Structure formats: structure tokens, C-alpha cells
Amino acid sequence: MGVGLGVNDVPIVGEPVAFGAGFIALLFVCFSTYIARYFYFYAATGGSLLTLVGLAQPIGGYAIDEKGLVFGRLVVGGRGLPVVVLAYIAGYIGPPLLGVAGAALIAAGNPWAVLLGTTFLSLLALLVAGNPLGFTIPLLIVLGLGAALFYGSGDQQAFAAAFVVWFLLFGGIAGAFRASGLGGERNTLAGRTFIPAVVWQLLFISVAIVSLIVGGQLLLRPGYDVV
């Protein structure tokens, strides 16, 4: 099909493609431990990077840590406690909220925007990658989604868009619950804000669960709308 808006004419919401992509994304998150977590680390760090961009802060770079930390390591270019706190929070709530945004685009009949947006942001991430793994993950996404955009049929592009959204939603759930065992930014936030780490984790879990419910409804229930 090539690059174009043909995928927007392919029905996704409530169709087998939405259920199938969700099932495969769930299997990927649950059973592909050593592969899926790096893509989640990238999505989580991406939430922090987008926050810094939104706050007009310089970005020092990022790296995905091979040791399996909760997040890829982020070099916060901005200064000041509010910037650092917001960047860390975005690392947890970024993936599920981006998943909801993608589900809303699909429900609005524009899955092409999900593919294009993911590819474009991953291209930008290549420019600030700080280590080989941090460069490889967005490169794989650019190559995979780029192939879907240029050479995939409308159905294949629709599946790719739905898979991206489901991965963000399921990955957000897994990341929020996993934080209790791995420490990471929830403890950093506790130290910087004097709010207990368990409160931060409950917040992250709540956001992830609500995002999964809303995003799932948008993908699986035709006519569902957020009011």
C-alpha cells in the first residue's frame, strides 16, 4: 500500500484485529521478559523525555540500562526540583497515558497517526541515545513501523497500530506493579518529595489500571467515548 491514509479505512475497534493484537501484546509483555522489558524501558524513558520537551528543558540524553533497572537512565538537562519530579513521574505514567492517546486516535479512525507518531518520536530518540542499547531499541521500532508504513497492507498497518497501543497499556500495568520489587524512581520521588514510596506506587498503579480500562474500551467497544 505504501505511505498513506489507507489504514484509516480499515476497521479496528471491536474487530478481530483489536482482540488479536491485544492477545499477542499481552503474551509479549508477560512471557518475553528480557525483550519486552527493554521496549518498556524505552517507552518509560520516552515519557520523561517528552515531559522535558514540553517544559522547554534541554535534554542531556538517555540510556537503556542492561542491568534491568526500572527505567533507562535519564540525564535530566533541566534544573530545579519540579522539573526532576515531573520527569520521574512521567516515566511511570507516560506509557499508559500514551496508550490511551493512541487508543483514542484509533477509535477516532486515525490509526495512521499512531504509526507515524511512534516512528517520528523514535527517530528523534535516536539523536539523544546515550548507549548502544538505547540506540538499538528505537532503531528497531523505526525499521519495523517504517516497513509497515511503506510496504504493509492496510490490515497489517492496522494490526501494528493496535499492537503498539496494547503494548503501552499492558506494559504500563506491568511496570507499575514491578516497581515495588525494583525500587527505582518511586524511591527517588519519595526522597525528593517526602511522600512515601508506597503512595507514589499506588498512584502509578491507579493510572495504569484506569488507562487500561479506558484504552481497552476504546479499542474493543464500538461507539465508546470518553465523556
From TrEMBL:
Keywords of this entry: Membrane, Transmembrane, Transmembrane helix
Domain of life: Bacteria
Keyword Transmembrane: yes
UniProt KW Transferase keyword: no
Transmembrane segments: 12-31, 38-60, 80-105, 112-129, 135-151, 158-177, 197-220
Name assigned to this protein: M50 family metallopeptidase
Organism: Actinomycetospora flava
The organism's taxonomic lineage, starting at the top: Bacteria, Bacillati, Actinomycetota, Actinomycetes, Pseudonocardiales
